[in-house]
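Entry under discussion copied across for reference:
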Amino acid sequence: MSIIINVVRRYRDKDYYSKDIYQNIVSTAKISVVGEVPIGIIDSNNAIFTFANLAVPGTVEIILNGIIQKNGNDYSIAETTITMTSPLEVGDILLINYIKL
């Protein structure tokens, strides 16, 4: 996001972009979340985890022990809740990438 904003600011200062176009670009920019550790107990019994923000639909990527999981087969999502199809084992590493809504 900062790269886009810096480029637009540079051009805006030279009057290549109007203020309205600049504001539109900034207001529609989305923030990517990479490597978030969802909240939940990894104890061989729990399969439910939560993440911090609502995500843009279709942008969620769940990674379990370095392997990208498949929505519908390996997990399901409802708002900020992830339900894995099987409980995670002690020592498993669960990460999530997504674009904040």
